[in-house]
Design brief:
Transmembrane protein, single chain, mainly alpha, transmembrane helix, membrane
Length: 165
C-alpha cells in the first residue's frame, strides 16, 4: 500500500471518526456532540484533517489540503455553536448541517483512497477519475441530501416544541 507512518496514523484515526459518525447518526439521527460517539467524531476528524495537511503525493497545497481545512472550519463552527448556543433553536440546524456536511466531505477522499488501494494489487478503481468513484460519491451525496432534509425536519419539530428555560 505504501503508506508512511503519518499515513497509517491518519487512516486509523479517520476510520475511527467515520465509524463514530455512523454510530451517532444511527443512534441520534445526527452527529450528536452530547454523545461519546459525537465527541469522538469531532476530535478524531480534527486530528485526521490536520494530519492530512502533512500528506501529499505532490509538492505544495493541493485540493486535499483545501478540503481538510474546510472540514476543520465546519466542525469548529459546529462545535462553537454547540458550546455557546445551548438549547434547541435555529443554531442546531446549522450545527447539524455543518457536522453532516463535514462527514460527507470526509467520505470523498475516503472513497477515492480506499477504491484506489483495495484490494491490494487489484484495486477497485484506477484513480480519482474512475467512474465507480464518481458514482459512489454521487450516491453518498444523495444520501447526504436526504439525511440533511430529515435532520432539518426533525430539528424544526424539536425547536417548535422547545420551551426556553
Amino acid at each position: 500500500m505504501g503508506l508512511s507512518n503519518l499515513g497509517i496514523f491518519h487512516t486509523v484515526i479517520g476510520i475511527i471518526a467515520i465509524i463514530s459518525a455512523i454510530i451517532s447518526l444511527i443512534k441520534s439521527g445526527k452527529i450528536n456532540l452530547d454523545t461519546l460517539a459525537g465527541k469522538i467524531y469531532f476530535y478524531f476528524t480534527l486530528i485526521s484533517s490536520l494530519t492530512a495537511l502533512g500528506l501529499s503525493s505532490v509538492k505544495g497545497v493541493n485540493p486535499g489540503h483545501i478540503l481538510a481545512l474546510l472540514i476543520v472550519m465546519l466542525i469548529s463552527v459546529a462545535y462553537i455553536l454547540y458550546v455557546r448556543k445551548k438549547g434547541n433553536n435555529g443554531y442546531r440546524l446549522i450545527e447539524n448541517f455543518f457536522l453532516s456536511f463535514s462527514f460527507f466531505l470526509s467520505l470523498i477522499p475516503t472513497v477515492n483512497e480506499t477504491f484506489s488501494r483495495v484490494p491490494v494489487g487489484n484495486p477497485i478503481a484506477s484513480g480519482p477519475k474512475d467512474p465507480i468513484i464518481g458514482t459512489t460519491i454521487l450516491f453518498i451525496f444523495v444520501l447526504f441530501i436526504i439525511g440533511s432534509i430529515l435532520q432539518f425536519r426533525k430539528q424544526k419539530r424539536i425547536n417548535k416544541n422547545y420551551i426556553t428555560p
